[in-house]
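G., the chain you wanted modeled:
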Amino acid sequence: MPKEMPKELFKTLGWALIIFLGLSLFFSIALQSPARENINLNDLAVKIQTGEVEKIEVRGEKLLIDLKDGTKLVSRKEPNIAFSETIKNYGVPTESFQMVNLEIKEPGGLNFWMTLLLPAILPIILIAVLFLFIFKRASSGVNQAFTFGRANIHLFTNFKEKLTFKDVAGLKEAKEELKEIIEFLKTPKKFLDLGAKIPRGVLLMGPPGSGKTLLARAVAGEANVPFFHISASEFVEMFVGVGASRTRDAFSTAKKAAPSIIFIDEIDAIGRERGAGLGGGHDEREQTLNQILVEMDGFDRDTNVIVLAASVTGDTPVLVKKNNEIFLRPIAEIINNYYQSDEEGGEKETSDLEVLGFEGKPNKQGVYFKKAAFKKVKSVFRHKVEEIYEIDYLGGKIKATGNHSIFIRDKWGVRAKPVCQLKIGEILADLPYQVNRTNKNKREIRAFDFNKDFNLELPVWFPLFEKSKPIDFAYQYALANIGQISQTQLGCQLGFSQRTIGKWQQGVCGPRELSRNYYQHQLVLPEKIRVTPGLLRLFGYYVAEGYSRKELDFCFNLKEKEKIDDVKNLIKEIFNLESDRERNTTPNALNIIYHSKPLAEFFAYYCGRGAYQKHIPSFLFNAPKEYFIEFFRGYFSGDGHKDKNGRLEVTSVSKRLILELNWLARLHGFKSYIHSFTAKKGRVINNGKPLKATVAWRLGFGKTQNPLEKIEGKANVRRPIVKSVKRLPYDNYVYDFCGCENEAFFGGESPILLHNTNRPDVLDHALLRPGRFDRRIILEPPDINEREEILKIHSKNKPLDQDVDLKKISTRTPGFSGADLANLINEAAILAARKNKKMVNQQDIYDSIEKVLLGSERKTKIISEKEKKIISFHEAGHALTVASLKDSDPVHKVSIISRGRVGGYTLKLPIEEQRLKTKSQFLADLTALLGGYVAEKETFKEVSTGASHDLKQVSELARSLVTRFGMSEKFGPIAFGKSEELIFLGREIATEKNYSEKIAAEIDAEVKKIIDQVYKTTQKIIISNKLALEKIAEELLKKEVLEQEDFYNLLKPFKLKLIKF
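Predicted structure as tokens:
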């Protein structure tokens, strides 16, 4: 294929650009109008009353205002209402309005003709230019159609930065194996004389950052043979047979240049195990894989070609179901709960999570879409990437990794396609799924089947008492400690007066917040209410026009008498309450007030409190269409409008509310659209203070998609057509649901059908057998010496201070990959530059290690003295326990400065590299983990939530000792649970229970036994070394940080006795 575009193409595009810019300049000058300052109707009404307005010209909905002092302003009147009527509603007297010179003009002139003709003429001009270009290129374009099946394979000969094996630190065994292959290509006679045959393929395997791509580049630098590079995703195309054709072309090109090397990056895109795809069918990817198998080990075996092979952003909304509750949340908020703060890369099993996917039926070309449905999630996954793709489609944007797939629509149904291969003009699969749009008789809308037998009751008092849980806890705690803790001390601990604690304990009274007798209407409000369409309409009114504090308040325009009566009747019918007060805050507004704290909390619990926090009731995702329509009716009555074209729009500053309504409308079969806008700062309402700039969200429905009124007509529905696909830099986690049926889930601000991420651990067995990938080279994380070598390479171009000891740094970085170490040195350089240093010193690198492991320091975080003391004793407990155990790694640092998501940390690092661990070492780890928990309990006689992560680790590790490592005295060398492992890496991705309920109970008992054992040991250490604990905590409160040397010097006077398991 030609590497440069023809000159004629540049010439044609250049002329088209000049014409387009010329037209744009002409119309911008022709349509330009004098600049006028914008003004709202409220301020205009004030100026009319004060006699400042000379003339008002009405052009459609546009108002051109001339003041008597010569100032020119512009505003917009309310649609479908006469301007005189609008001004009267704003309280302008008739005599003041009559003093203004009013002119009403219909839109016309140049603006009218340009608005009418430009949309019709401009496409014709552009189409004419396009056809001219096509006819001009017809003679040479015929041949280009036959290059479609050619592979976009790149030949590398001269690198800007040539890498050799000398530039790759560590990986000695891997380099030795690759050197043999390179030598085979350079001097084949030496090997052929002994009857040896060249390996056909080498598979580089290893965790992210281990150096697979770097090693491949070094091979290219070492070999004096042609080196071809291609990404596996470039083989696959939407047309059948193209992938196989490109495979043949790639190998044919390499064979002509033999001896040569082909490097296939991200081979998992086409090498996944056959039959494991969408519906288990035979797709284009499998044809491509079959062709690779033939090329690597077919009848023609005597070619000297070697093959080398080396995965949605967190703000993507997804609809999930957990514990029978349905909610819309960003995917990161769902999946982050399954991971520790800096953990990534491994799948996490889920047992109670479902995500909105679809029911489908595989066919030869893709999958037949039946309806949206919730599907169980087998596991969740997150990892960090350096780049993402932003897909801009008609109706929104979504971001995903290049090897993530997204579903597109065609005449056969839906099919998954890698993001990096999306083409402009392709149609994404969204909800509602409309088929046979052109045939009225066969037209069908497929969305979601809601529960027709919906029946739900809501407790009225529950939200109030749920909010008072802390007070209930304090009350129960005070009663439980009668005679054990003084009333004064209890008051200080719980935040109540000694008199209040005394009354509680004497039975004089209890907390007012826990007693219904304290609240008005305790005999009037019902215990429970049934969810009805009327209640949902009332919720809609509240979301639009209501707020709750100690009272419930609805605000309407005085002219909205039907809505006012509807709200009052619904409250009376459902809650047995009459309004306590009705007041006019402004001349045109009426506030309906109910002085009932339980009722206010009820509405706030289900629909939110405050404009920015409003949302739909979560149970509405389970309710039939009539419930949604009534909620929307109530909400539309307050925050919606209908334009002259019949389009409905509602507006809110709550993004969550608009997104939930958008998803819910589409689940019910209504095609909606959303967009955001910013209201400029400085706006004034009712002569109040100038307002800040506000981002608002708008949800709209076309004329035929109106949920409140069925209107027959041609449905001009927006289809999610891809407008552009951009590749962007990115440095954060991406997320995925794994194991969903049909490998699909909906995601995005508008629900778009996404595909599960392709994984590098599911290669087909046929690729791995001898004769294809003969050699599999596993790249493991570097050891301490290799880390030192890698650090030398990455720091050679950076000015290091004399105190920098790379050996010490390598001891502090166990488990770091080569990419991690490169990032570490880079972070240290950035940190030194931030401090205006000329050189990077040892402390900069130490700080960067902790930043990479735990996150950035948060010294500005405000922590109370009480919390600071708790954190100090917690970390002192960890550190003291570690220092008291013979089988534990030494403490390197103790800190109570917040980093990332942790309030403090105790850093312990191994003295030497460890690949195996004994039971004694595991028990020492468990003891160290419980150190903070026990220290809190023994010091403060209660524990905080700060130990939750420690307890989770303790439970998981203790269970692994019993079920995975055979370290239980009762069960012995038995592993419980049948593990499903990855094809060649052996990583566990699922566990099947293969034991009885009785054994499960015994396993739980054995886990508890182990935890009880280490708890007693931890308790013994903390109690017997109480003075040492207090001394460590005291120093931490003073200095906030204790380095290794300071910490052990602090403990010398106490002469700790080391404990061994």
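The mean pLDDT is 76.

Shout if anything looks off.
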